[in-house]
């Protein structure tokens, strides 16, 4: 088999046992280097094949970075074009001219390096809290990936310096606010570059927060000395929007999968029917997400395959159909899944796109000014993501109401014994309602706004930075609402004992009970909500249920359609109608 362009051989001064290849599901090679203390994995970046999963892993510190040989060659050829422009004193935007409104101001050759340092310093004007280390790593890694494409004109020497900074986990102080999303994410990326040149603040696990110069020195690194065009190469692009968007997409995918499991557990507690998940219903409206969600519900609730004593207790009841919040989960959860898939496609394209200006085309030996820095694509996508994922919380909050309301659930009010003395889930439901209401405001699209900047030179912007940040806030609220529903559903199970639910849902119940005990009487509830939230964020709920879902898929288990008063056949209705005398009024 030919080696993948992402084959990464590890180099280390530490003694190592050996290296071997690991074939992943995305058909790329990674090589680990084992030391006595830890595993060190490298991802070889080429600017073309980074995935959202990869970037999240880089943010968590799971991998270090190398460049592919092909990427190194492209970077070198791109730099040759810049060197030629400087040597020939050609007037080119951002290389031998000022920026924005000063695009027509030609800069003397003797001050071209000073120009780049001034750019980074003046544009480092963000405000707000600094990005957490994981998000800072993602931002830095993504900028490296984009520079590896070879269209920005950065020198290979400088790019390798930046990679060393990433691999040492030296992370600049980057305020979260200040980008309008065109011309790229200038303020946050300037703060990123500021740390690289040894100015401002930096953080590392070894040093904590300190002056950037001293953090670099503590790791045996030197500040980057910017050459012509390199300041602009480091700060011009949509990487703030896209890296935060990458986290949003991955967290949205995780909570969407687990929302199906939580809702299935609620349906069991409320003694709902599985008839609404019949394959024939969804085959005639074949949206991919809808079909998948219905399948997950069947795989979790099929009481013939996974015997459920709760389901058997009401198999022959007088209910015809459930409320929308239970019956329409495939349609509501399904479109969320399809929304996430759509947004993920845009974000993945953006991860591997050149978003600098001007672009350096080595094959043509020239630079071309354009607008790839404009963040409208990820901004619109992330606004859409927030709107889509919010619906998981909106429908979850209504299910929590059904669980807590004794007239709807046939369970004790607010899921607690001795109601009145105890309040149970009364205010936990209010918390869910508050989060859903807040999300409704956050779902207003930021990308519908635009303000002219830079003396009307940059007269239309995306506001993508806010789109990304509020998408993450919406998703966190969704996680918290579903955590409350998960706790409420498990508490509802307590009142149905000794009856048991299906095997996969019992596993989910056991998982929750491993961190949160049942409510016998009122107690401090916030820590329990946080514990359930952690289970969802860490995807523990998915991990315990997924094997049963996949087993059901692989084994092609026949769908069970039990005959009951809630599943009338046409033949039965016809027989019944023939018994009505012709003379009788209808």
Automatic annotation (TrEMBL):
Domain of life: Eukaryota
Alphabetized NCBIfam families for the sequence: hutH, PRK09367.1
Source organism: Camelus ferus
One Gene Ontology molecular-function label: histidine ammonia-lyase activity
Cellular component, GO, one term: cytoplasm
Pathway assigned to this chain's UniProt record: Amino-acid degradation; L-histidine degradation into L-glutamate; N-formimidoyl-L-glutamate from L-histidine: step 1/3
Signal peptide per UniProt: 1-21
Gene3D superfamilies hit by this protein: Fumarase/aspartase (Central domain) (1.20.200.10), Fumarase/aspartase (N-terminal domain) (1.10.275.10)
Similarity comment text for this entry: Belongs to the PAL/histidase family.
InterPro entries: Aromatic_Lyase (IPR001106), Fumarase/histidase_N (IPR024083), HutH (IPR005921), L-Aspartase-like (IPR008948), Phe/His_NH3-lyase_AS (IPR022313)
Keywords tagged on the record: Histidine metabolism, Lyase, Signal
GO BP, one annotated term: L-histidine catabolic process to glutamate and formate
Protein's name according to its UniProt entry: Histidine ammonia-lyase
Catalytic activity: L-histidine = trans-urocanate + NH4(+)
EC number: 4.3.1.3
């Amino acid at each position: 088999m030919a080696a993948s362009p992402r084959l990464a051989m590890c180099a280390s001064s530490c003694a190592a046992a050996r290296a071997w290849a690991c074939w992943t599901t995305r058909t790329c090679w990674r090589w680990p280097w084992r030391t006595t203390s830890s595993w060190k994995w490298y991802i070889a970046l080429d600017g073309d094949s980074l995935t959202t999963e990869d970037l999240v892993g880089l943010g968590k510190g799971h991998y270090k970075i190398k460049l592919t040989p092909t990427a190194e060659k492209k970077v070198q050829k791109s730099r040759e074009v810049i060197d030629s422009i400087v040597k020939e004193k050609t007037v080119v935007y951002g290389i031998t001219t000022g920026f924005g409104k000063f695009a027509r101001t030609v800069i003397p050759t003797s001050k071209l390096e000073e120009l780049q340092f001034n750019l980074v310093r003046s544009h480092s004007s963000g405000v707000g809290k600094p990005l957490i280390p994981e998000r800072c790593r993602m931002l830095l890694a993504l900028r490296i990936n984009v520079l590896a494409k070879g269209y920005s004109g950065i020198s290979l020497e400088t790019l390798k310096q930046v990679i060393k900074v990433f691999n040492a986990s030296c992370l600049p102080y980057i305020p979260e606010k200040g980008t309008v999303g065109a011309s790229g994410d200038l303020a946050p990326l300037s703060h990123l570059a500021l740390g690289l040149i040894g100015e401002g603040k930096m953080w590392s696990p070894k040093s904590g927060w300190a002056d950037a110069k001293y953090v670099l020195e503590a790791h045996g690194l030197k500040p980057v000395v910017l050459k012509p065009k390199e300041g602009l190469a480091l700060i011009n692009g949509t990487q703030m929007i896209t890296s935060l968007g990458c986290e949003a997409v991955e967290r949205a995918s995780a909570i969407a999968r687990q929302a199906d499991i939580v809702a299935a557990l609620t349906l069991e507690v409320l003694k709902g029917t599985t008839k609404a998940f019949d394959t024939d219903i969804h085959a005639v409206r074949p949206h991919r997400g809808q079909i998948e969600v219905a399948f997950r519900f069947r795989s979790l609730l099929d009481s013939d395959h996974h015997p459920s004593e709760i389901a058997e207790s009401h198999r022959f009841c007088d209910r015809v159909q459930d409320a929308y919040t239970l019956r329409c989960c495939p349609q509501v959860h399904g479109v969320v899944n399809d929304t996430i898939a759509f947004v993920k496609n845009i974000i993945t394209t953006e991860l591997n796109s050149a978003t600098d200006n001007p672009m350096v085309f080595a094959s043509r030996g020239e630079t071309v000014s354009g607008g790839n820095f404009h963040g409208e694509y990820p901004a619109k996508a992330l606004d859409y993501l927030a709107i889509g994922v919010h619906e998981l919380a909106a429908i979850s909050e209504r299910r929590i109401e059904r669980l807590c309301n004794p007239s709807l659930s046939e369970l004790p009010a607010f899921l607690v014994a001795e109601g009145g003395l105890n309040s149970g889930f009364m205010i936990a439901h209010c918390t869910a309602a508050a989060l859903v209401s807040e999300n409704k405001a956050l779902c207003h699209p930021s990308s519908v706004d635009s303000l002219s900047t830079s003396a009307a030179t940059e007269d239309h912007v995306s506001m993508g930075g806010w789109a990304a940040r509020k998408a993450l806030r919406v998703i966190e609220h969704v996680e918290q609402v579903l955590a409350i529903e998960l706790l409420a559903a498990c508490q509802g199970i307590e009142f149905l004992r000794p009856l048991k639910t299906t095997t996969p849902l019992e596993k989910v119940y056991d998982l929750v009970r491993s961190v949160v005990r049942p409510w016998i009487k009122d107690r401090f509830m916030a820590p329990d909500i946080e514990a359930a939230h952690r289970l969802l964020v860490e995807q523990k709920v998915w991990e315990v249920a997924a094997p049963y879902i996949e087993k059901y898929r692989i084994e092609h288990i026949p769908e069970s359609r039990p005959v009951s008063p809630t599943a009338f056949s046409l033949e039965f209705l016809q027989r019944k109608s023939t018994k009505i005398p012709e003379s009788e009024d209808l």
